[in-house]
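Before a colleague's protein record goes any further, I have to sign it off. What it holds is a sequence and that sequence's fold in C-alpha cell form. Would you go through it and say whether the fold makes sense for this chain? The record follows directly below this note.
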Amino acid sequence: MSHLSILSFKYNLAKLRSKAGRPTGRPLSARDRQFSDLSTYKPDDEEMKKKVFNMIASQSRGINKKDLQQLLERFGKADAATEARRMMCVADHNKDGYMDLEEFMEVHRNGVQLGDIRRAFFVFDRDEDGRISAEEVMTVLRKLGQSCSLDECQKMVREIDRDGDGFVGMDDFMVMMTRPRRKP
C-alpha cells in the first residue's frame, strides 16, 4: 500500500505538530530506532481518524477519488487522477465511491513500510540536499492545507534535530517516525 504512504506520513506530521510546543525530554538516539519495529510502523487508530482521515475527507461519507486526486496534485504527482483511481480501487471495498473510516483503517492495519518512510522524507526534502529545513516543512504543510508560521516549523525541526545543525536529516527523520508512541 505504498501509494497511501502520504496519508500515514501526514498522520505522523500532525502528531509532531501537536507536540511542537512541548519540551523535548531526552534527546533521541539510534537506540530508540533500534528498539522500534523498523520494518513497519503501526499508527494509532484514534489519531489516524482525527488527524488524517478527517483532514482529507471533504464529505462526512468519507474520502472520495477527488479528495485523493487533490492531495496528490498538491504534491505534484504527474498523473494524480489515475493514481487516485487506483488508490480507490484498492481501498474502496464496498465500491460506493468513498473510502469510509473502516476501509481507510484497513489500509493501515499492516503498518507503514520502511521504504514509505524514506519516500516521505524526500517529499519534505524539496531541494534534495539530504536534509529538511524549517522552510521545507512549512512549504509541505501549506501544500497539505495547514497554516503554520516559520517559527512553528523551526520549533518542530528543533524537536527532531539531534545534532543541532538546524535541519532534520534522514537518521533524525527515521528515529522520529519509528520511535515507540507514548500514551498521554
About this structure: The two ends are 29 Å apart (CA to CA). DSSP finds ten helices and six strands in the chain.
